[in-house]
Design brief:
Blueprint (H helix, E strand, L loop, with lengths): L1 H6 L32 E5 L3 H11 L4 E6 L10 E2 L4 E3 L5 E3 L8 E2 L5 E2 L3 H9 L3 E4 L7 E3 L9 E2 H21 L9 H15 L15 E3 L9 E2 L6 H7 L17 E4 L5 H10 L4 E3 L1 E8 L4 E7 L2 E7 L1 E4 L3 H4 L3 E2 L3 H8 L1 E3 L2 E8 L3 H4 L6 E5 L5 E4 L9 E9 H8 L3 H16 L2 H4 L1 E8 L11 E3 L18 E3 L11 H20 L1
Parallel strand pairs: 1-2, 1-18, 2-14, 9-22, 15-19, 18-27
Antiparallel strand pairs: 3-6, 4-5, 7-13, 8-13, 9-10, 11-12, 15-16, 16-17, 20-26, 21-24, 21-25, 22-23, 23-24
The structure holds phenylalanine.
Length: about 500
């Protein structure tokens, strides 16, 4: 019986340790012959976790109601288009003036292939396209290291890989590895270094066509001119460009990556459609969650009026830092756990340009420029190539860099971001700008965080009260996952909660 339940994902199996249990969505048929029926569930928060909870429970006929404090669903999954407005906690109100077809994903913007997010896109019929996370033609620019001009990723890689290969080959030649690997393996290592660093039979880096060309190769008679001069090893290491290479090795950030066609909010839009608008109340700010012996009462305000909603269960799918400020009777251990979830900051600015000069002048079609400036990253759009207008993410920064930008007025944010970008791209970065919109999550009402850090991870003892029900109240959100700051975390946390709740209702 247990083994069968395990196979159905209804009971833990030994093999499943460390692995996500296979998720089996609740079905109406699960209630047949059990004398049980679907319960009434109130879900606090209409972000990805809350929407997914309602969507999955809805498959078995649960009577779900979502209470969402903001005026739209999606939570941090927010795609900004022309006409969208936002009021931040400092009182800055912005309305986006982006033209038709231009958008900025202010929250999530990229999806790794392995994440469950891709399964939901498939199931919900949300078309996806490649999101270019790394591009050999994008730039690296470390002003603090004394760089006066940006260098292309491909050039920086050729130089760093070239010199590292040369040095390792030399060390090998001097016998430095004799006690580490056999002579035969040293030969194999040298073979690898020759191709990895393009260092030739002399095992010396003298530049490479991999650096790129100042004149591209073309027809006969035009072999092209390789980019020069080649900097010394010392100059290359001093520039610090090598620090950015490992990003794309990460399990979460390696190409290929994907995005929904037309904007990341196609995902919450599809979930909202499936759940049904009549089950979702926006502008409903929860004031109190009361767990009782036989049910849960949620008190909320909507346009100045106070309402209560009674249900059999509650799923708290709002940010932990917000729940920590909401009254509840879930006990001090729950409260301590919520307070131990530290909110983080992140911000982005969308810069819409009158033309796509990064494509025409720089040959950059998507990807990211990395810098040590306070804008951190510049994202080029992975959609609309060769169109008339285009939209760059002019900063995507975190921590104090994000908070410092947030303290400025939207106009000052734009000015500062543009002044930084000009250092990399020149005057067109200013002269071709049409309009901008900036967004900061720590300063966004009802969210007040870009993501959260949980010391010791979500399974640390202090968070245990959030990983099970507190009476009839369950918790869900990306913060309760090993994929914090990813929709995958919200999806899988919601699935875990749905499975636990459904199992209890069936028992
Ligand atoms: N998922 C977010 C992003 O890809 C935040 C994040 C960044 C998470 C880097 C992990 C690593 O930008």
């Amino acid at each position: 019986m247990l083994a069968t339940m395990g196979a159905l994902g209804l009971a833990p199996t030994a093999e499943a340790a460390g692995r996500e249990p296979v998720f089996r969505a609740p079905r109406a048929g699960d209630f047949t012959l059990r004398g049980k029926g679907a319960a009434k569930v109130v879900i606090v928060g209409g972000g990805i976790a809350g929407l997914t909870t309602a969507y999955e429970l809805g498959k078995a006929g649960y009577d779900c109601t979502i209470l969402e404090a903001r005026d739209r669903t999606g939570g941090r999954n927010f795609t900004v288009r022309g006409g969208d407005t936002n009021l931040d906690l400092y009182g800055n109100r912005q309305t986006a003036r982006f033209s038709d077809g231009q958008y900025m994903n202010a929250g999530p913007g990229r999806i790794p292939q392995w994440m469950v997010t891709m399964d939901y896109c498939r199931e919900l019929g949300v078309p996806v396209e490649v999101f270019t996370n790394s591009n050999a033609n994008a730039y690296l620019f470390n002003e603090k290291a004394g760089m006066t001009a940006p260098v292309r990723y491909r050039t920086a890689k050729a130089d760093v890989y070239g010199y590292v290969s040369e040095l390792l080959a030399k060390a090998t030649g001097k016998g430095a590895l004799d006690s580490e690997i056999t002579a035969e393996d040293q030969e194999r290592l040298l073979e690898f270094l020759k191709s990895f660093g393009d260092i030739g039979s002399k095992l010396t880096y003298t530049g490479s066509e991999r650096r790129g060309y100042s004149v591209d190769p073309a027809a006969a008679g035009t072999p092209g001119i390789e980019l020069g001069p080649v900097p010394s090893a010392s100059e290359v290491f001093a520039s610090g460009v090598g620090r950015y290479f490992s990003f794309e090795f990460g399990y979460d950030q390696a190409m290929l990556m994907f995005q929904p066609v037309g904007g990341m909010d196609r995902i919450p839009a599809a979930l909202t459609r499936e759940v049904g608008k009549r089950r979702i109340r926006t502008g409903a700010v929860v004031q109190k969650i009361t767990d009782k012996a036989h049910g849960v009462t949620v008190t909320y305000t909507e346009q100045g009026r106070t309402h209560t909603l009674d249900a059999d269960y509650c799923v708290a799918a709002l940010p932990p830092n917000i729940l920590a400020k909401t009254s509840h009777n879930l006990g001090p251990a729950v409260q301590s756990a919520l307070e131990a979830c530290t909110p983080s900051s992140a911000g982005k600015i969308g810069l819409e340009y009158r033309n796509r000069w990064w494509e025409s002048d720089h040959r950059i079609y998507g990807g990211i420029t990395e810098t040590d400036l306070d804008l951190a990253h510049i994202w080029y759009p992975s959609y609309g190539h060769h169109g008339k207008r285009g939209l760059i993410v002019g900063y995507y920064n975190t921590g104090s860099q994000a908070d410092n930008y947030a303290k400025l007025t939207p106009r000052e944010r734009e000015e500062r971001a543009v002044a930084q970008g000009v250092k990399i791209h020149g005057e067109k970065y200013r002269s071709e700008l049409a309009t901008s919109f900036s967004h900061h999550w720590r300063q966004t009402p009802h969210l007040e965080a870009s993501w959260h850090s949980l010391s010791g991870g979500p399974d640390a003892p202090v968070f245990a009260p959030l990983n099970k029900a507190a009476g009839r109240v369950y918790f869900a959100g990306d913060y309760l996952s090993y994929a914090d700051a990813w929709q995958h975390g919200a999806f899988t946390s919601a699935r875990k909660t749905v499975a636990a709740l459904h199992e209890r209702v069936l028992a």
